[in-house]
Amino acid sequence: MKIVKVSATPMSAVVPQAKRHRTDLGTRVKTDATLIRVETDNGLTGMGAALGTPPIVAAIVGHELAPECVGEDPMFSERIYEKMYNGSRSKPALERGVAQADESRRRGVIMHAIAGVDIAIWDVKSQALGIPLYQALGAARNSIRGYASGGWAAGDGAEAELAGYAAKGFSAVKMRVVGDDGFSIAKCVHRVKAARRGLGPDVELMVDAHGSLEVGTAIKLAKELEPYDIAWFEEPVSPDDHAGQAEVRRSTTIPIASGEREFTRFDFQDLLERRALDIAQPDVARAGGMTEIRRIAALTSAHGVRLAPHAWGSGVLFAASMHAAMAAPNCHLLEVTQGYMPMMWELFNEPFDIRSTGMVHAPDRPGLGFTLRPEALDRFKYVDGPEFEF
Fold first, then answer.
1. For the segment 36-77, what is each residue's pLDDT rounded down to a tens digit?
2. What is the DSSP letter of 105?
3. 30 three-state secondary structure
4. What CA dihedral angle connects 40, 45, 48 and 52, to 10 degrees?
């Protein structure tokens, strides 16, 4: 079996005015993704998806990555990943057993593209094996507890918003530190108190700062939130400040989670060495695809750190995150977005199996286990411009 074609298609889903909300990231006006497909000479096609600006991702796939993949056997997924990651140095890297990453490929949009191609390769590989992708990775389970991820409402509105997530059956929910009413420590504590009131004592509550706080503010906020039984404080400071995150972790009894904006196992190694996190949250579309997220899971497990993959974006990325969660023994939760994301919920012919108990069940079909709706590419045509307004 050989790869004969690798292609990338930019996609967008516009957010209607009534569905928009403002947070520290700005006001989301659309969601972008790049659909990546890997075709083989025996008629199989694998799907992946990438974050990053779609036309740029598509150019990287077409001009740099596709030529490195065409002619390769997708069963050799580790080899192909190393070719993409190491670039022109891939041959000596594989011969010597030492990573020699091309300086342009270690992070950023090229790694987004590499991750998307890698997901598609694992999809076609597991289709060829006739088993679901999580079983090709090495299954630990076939279902996992999901947590509802949202929580933007201002003030006392957080009570009903978070309670609504619990009413769907979720036993864990997440809210944003910065709500529709902006940020101050007092506003955040008010919203968290309201959320806990709506949830009661038995539903886990997490808070996410999106890396928007400085160390001192994050420490002060964590102290104020400790009475509300917070399951984790996510990205309290910038992902560029691993030392600062470690300082926040030392200052509070609340577990610290992060990792959605880290690239490859090497970023996570630094977090682990600094003892900066309790829960690792690699994003399969940013950390390096299925190949690298499996390595991250093993690395974090060796340090006694649990895994809860960041899962945001298109249906392809949620499906990939689901398979990663099913395969990693140290994974305990999977993110389920509550935002307006039609490219997640309306991309495939087959629905995701999320039960009324909040449990997410893996598909039993080979590969990712999902097929595109016939109208998907027309409905989600790419729209030029940024995803957020400020």
1. 999 999 999 999 999 999 999 999 999 999 999 999 999 999
2. S
3. strand
4. 70
